[in-house]
Structures are given as C-alpha cells and as structure tokens.
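Final report, section 2: Outcomes. Of the targets proposed, BTB domain-containing protein is the one most frequently requested by collaborating groups, and we therefore present its record in full.
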Amino acid sequence: MTSVGEHATAAQTTIVDSAATVIEFSVNYEQTKHLADGNAVHSDAIAAGEHMWRIKYCPAPVSRDLCLSLQLLSKSSDINAIFEVVLIDKDGTPVVSAAKRTWRLGKFCGTILWLQPATGTGSSTDLGKNCMREGGKIMFLCTIRILNHDGSSVPAPPSDIAKHLGTLLDTADATDVSFVVDGEMFHAHRAILVARSPVFRAELLGSMAEAKMSSITLLCTISLLQRSELCFGSCTPTPCLETYDELGGSPLEMFQHLLGAADLYALDRLKLLCVQKLWNNVWVDTVATILACAEKYSCHELKNMCIGFFTVEKNFKKAVLTEGFARLVHQFPSIIPELRDSIGA
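The predicted structure is given below as tokens.
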C-alpha cells in the first residue's frame, strides 16, 4: 500500500491520562478522494501506552464511507487497545463515531474502523463533503486507549479542574477584568466568564462597549455569581457557605437572588439547580414568595409545582394569609385567575 503523507496533517497528540491518548488527525478530503485504490494517507508516529502507533486513512469513493485504521509500529506481542474515532464537522460538532478493539493477524496488529452516515440520513450522504473545512480538510478526533491484560483500562482519577478553578476565586492572580457593584470592586477572569455565559461572551468579546473596558459596573453581585456558578459547575450541588454571608440573608433569599443572576446571564444549569433548591424550601409560609420568583424569571416548571401546592385546600387556606401572598397579588395580579382555575373555586 502506498502512503501519501502530503495529504495528511501531522497528528496533534494530547495525553489524557496514563491509559489514553487523543489525537487530532486532519486529512485533505478533496485531494484524497481522487487517490487510486490501494493508496492511503497516514499520520506521523504516535506514542501511546509506551508503544508507537500510526493512523491511516483510506478513501472509499464508491461507498462514500470513511475508513481509518490503527497500526502498531512497535514490536510487541502482548498489547491490547481500543481505537475510537469521532468525525468532527466544520463547526466543531461530533457527527459520527466508531470504536473497536485491536487484533493481531500475522505481523499486523491494529484495527480498522468504518464511519458511515447515521441511520435515516441515506446511504448517499457524503460524510466527508458535509464536514469539509477551509482548504478541503476533514478532521477526526482519535483516541487510543490502552487496556490491561484482563481487558480493562487503567483507572484515572476524577478531574480536579473545578478545584483548580475554585482557587482562582480566592486570589487576584491572572485577573484581567473587574466589576463594580454598589461601589465595591470585584476582580474576575474574563476567560472563565466568557466560557460560562453567552451574555458575558457578548459583552466581553463582542462589539459592546464593555469589551474594551477594564472595569464594568453591574447590577448584580458578581462575586456571589462567580463563586456559586463555579461550585454548581462541579459535582457539588450546593454553593459555598460563604455566599450566604455575602447576601446577609437566609438561604432562601440567596437562591432567589442567585436565580435572578442566573437568568440574567443565561446560566441555564445554575438556574435549574436554583429551582430545585427553591422547591425544596416550599411550604405554606414561602410558596407565594417562590411562586412570584418563578413568574418573574419564567421558571414554568417551578410555577406549576407551586400552583399544585396551592391546590391542596389546607395549604391554600394558610398560604393566602401570608405577606408573600399579598406581594404576589400586587406584583402579578394575572396569576390569580390561574390559581382560581387550578383550585376550582
């Protein structure tokens, strides 16, 4: 088989852990689809699991499927691995994937994968053409995962990126933007805010005036939002206890405040987690206040659950006597007909 290396981009290798290696492998689809049968393009040698490997791409112009193979270059008779390939479209979105365990036949050790159009898209779908980037290239994200002798992969410790990002909140190290809230300045990291919120992305990277400002005035407590979003973004379901003190109020007040900030900055996951916490705090003394909060920030599921709570007669009789219900009627009078219809009164 002839190797045509000039049609392939040198593989970019990332070591994920001791058992897995991820490679970005780009191929010039426009040029390689005209290769004669038996020709292929290949990556540079790749180090994975103390062995050297090579990825080959073989065009299949008739079927329009995409074929990649993994070949062991090192001399070894006792190596097992799983080869996984994901085709990435021009927008960076995974399209199709395949995975297979390596096998040995004579001197060859490796495996072969075929990427085919998803079911329902039609056999005539040209995967390569649909995913072509500038210059006629297509990109594959390849993973080589080394297995133990019993077929299991080497365990990796859980990610500690949330812990590392959390430490940034306690210092001003590498901060590149600041926010003024009620006359108090909070330092922040532009990249983290941009990654977490599409609203911050538009403000800090777009054409808005804030993109060029080193200090921005906000109406919400950015320090609370930053800390809570980072905590919620990890495996911890509850924000840092310090955030309670920052508000100077109860946990219920904090979650209402935080829900408003999450809604303002389009932090959808944080918003849902706040909804869960608010629902856990629903009782006759708080249901009207939480219902008003749900109505204000368009939390339809929380609103429906609160209305359902009102439909229980003993709950309704007590809840309507609270100050929260009086504020609810004043702020959102249109919700009274909805309550009346649900209760049937």
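The longest strand covers residues 137-146.
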